[in-house]
Write a structure and sequence with these properties.
- The chain has a single domain, classed as Gcn5-related N-acetyltransferase (GNAT) (Aminopeptidase, 3-Layer(aba) Sandwich), CATH 3.40.630.30.
- Helix content is 37%, strand content 31%.
- The protein contains five helices and seven strands.
- The protein has a seven-stranded mixed β-sheet, sandwiched between helices.
- Helix 1 runs antiparallel to helix 2.
- The chain is globular.
Length: 164
């Protein structure tokens, strides 16, 4: 049975290991091995993860004492943004992704109206998932190196029950 909960400092190492184990092989076929390595090195190190956990921005899915899913939110200007939402392959398709989004929404301050998410254009599976979850494309930021797979797709949805 899976348990969704706010991440704690004791989870930092397991979250980093989750990123090393699952994020690199997920992204390598989509954006290339070098870009996948860069993603793990930049966003899944103990310093970055530890700071996000300390700030109360990370939710984990735990099964049998193991981290099998991670979601992290943050800010981009005034917007609240989902920056990470990953599940181990064997845990996909069981409704955990929408539940992770619900947990991140639960953490938002009461005045938060919009929730955004960003993903690489090359990650069509993520795009389809977020579309099903009510996120619509707001803009696409071209990649610095001109590779379309590395363009960043920004999606947004209004927080349920919020008034703009």
């Amino acid at each position: 049975m899976e348990v969704l909960r706010d991440a704690e400092q004791r989870d930092v190492r397991a979250i980093c290991e989750f990123g090393e184990t699952h994020v690199r092989p997920h992204y390598a076929p989509l954006i290339g091995a070098q870009a996948a390595d860069e993603q793990v090195a930049r966003w899944w190190d103990a310093e970055q993860i530890g700071a996000a956990v300390a700030a109360g921005l990370v939710v984990v899915v735990e099964a049998d004492g193991q981290v099998v899913g991670v979601a992290q939110r943050g800010r981009s200007g005034v917007d609240h943004v989902i920056y990470k939402l990953y599940l181990a392959p064997e845990c996909r398709g069981r409704g955990l992704g929408p539940r992770l989004i619900q947990e991140l929404v639960r953490q938002l301050p009461p005045d938060a109206v919009r929730l955004c998410v960003e993903h690489f254009a090359g990650n069509a599976r993520a795009g389809a998932f977020y579309e099903r979850e009510g996120f619509t494309v707001e803009r696409i930021s071209p990649s610095a190196d001109g590779r379309p797979a590395l363009d960043v797709v920004w999606r947004v949805r209004t927080r349920p029950g919020a008034s703009a």
